[in-house]
Amino acid sequence: MGLRIAAAYAWRLLVVAVLVFGAFSLLGRFHKVGVAVFLGLVIAAVLRPVAGLLARAVPRPLAVGVTLIGGILLVLGILALVGEAVASERTTLMREFRTGIDRIERWLEEPPFRLNPDALTDIQSRIGHLISEHRSTVLSTALSGADRLVEVVTVLALALFCSVFFMHSGERQWAWFCAQLPPAARPRTMTAGRAAWRTFTGYTHGVLLVAATNAVLVGIALTLLGVPLALPLALLEFFAAFVPLIGSPVALAVAAVVALASKGPLVAGIVVALIVVIGQIEGHLLHPLVMSWAVRLHPIVVALAVIGGAVAAGVIGAVAAVPLVAVLWAVRQALREPPEGQDAPGPAGPGPRPAVPGQGADTS
Q1: What residues contact 120, with CB distance under 8 A and at least 6 apart?
Q2: d(Cα 203, Cα 323) in Å, to the nearest integer?
Q3: pTM for this structure?
Q4: Which of 100-104, 151-155, 301-305, 341-345 has the largest mean confidence?
Q5: Could you tell me which residues are beta bridge partners of residue 349?
Q6: pLDDT tens digits, residue range 114-157?
Q7: DSSP 8-state class, residue 115
Q8: What is the DSSP letter of 30?
Q9: pLDDT on residue 54
Q10: Within a 10 A sphere around the Cβ of 298, how many other Cβ atoms?
Q11: Domain ranges of the chain
Q12: DSSP SS3 for 244
């Protein structure tokens, strides 16, 4: 009996493994399209409530266009502000970093490191000599970076294009998709779609709020400590917070290195303490308070999802892994319940089949 049960589970797991491998292979071939659709969903989840409010006063196409253009202008304004901050602090920053590098070299020459001073001298000339020797490699890397920039712009353009339709008529698109399915599968597909979108939007709004809170705290702390590039480092913290568990500590570690090079070990130590404090606030206050209603995943599951996503698809995989796992779990939980209009199965068998819904649910 036990062997039969194990065999039944084994072939089911084998089928699931084959499907997962095929899905990842397919996404690997069309990963740019997948990234664009994911970003389009994120943009729609963030901006759709604003477009809904504007649609009460103006036609919906105009509301969607105004919302999207306003969001783009807001992002470009923030980037311009960061660029202005970097440009205004460039001279001071170069001087402080030059002094900071000399200070770090002296520390490495003293106990307990006792590094050879000859190994630390002439670093800039060595780097320049290395670049001159490998000029062709540097040039090809720059050209490759230009190609990558074109790919990024293309993906962003496709994401914006998708987000327009997700915000304007996403529910009609989902209703059309469900209408193409066999009648018996439509109610459960509608239920799964509602659960998936509710979880995805809840996660997106929650992580956005957590990232904004972390960025504000980091920006205020670095400004009070006099660390240069406080605004760019706060922006780095904002984007890093989208990678749960590991993104925020990595961004704050960069801030600690900047503080060490510019302000010395005392300020760097305070920034390290800031890493611990913000980690505690994020882990014990923000995430449970803001995201518990949308994402109910154990921290171990989150950690495994982030690492697995990073291994499979790099930074994008690390960002998308947790919402993907959360959506799959929400769909599973929703499908365990009977579809709307259908009674739960009893001793006599399942209840009557529901009628096919005439209207699509608001799934975007």
Answers
A1: 105, 108, 109
A2: 7
A3: 0.71
A4: 151-155
A5: 346
A6: 666 665 555 545 655 655 555 555 455 545 556 677 888 898 99
A7: -
A8: T
A9: 93
A10: 8
A11: 29-121+139-180, 184-340
A12: coil
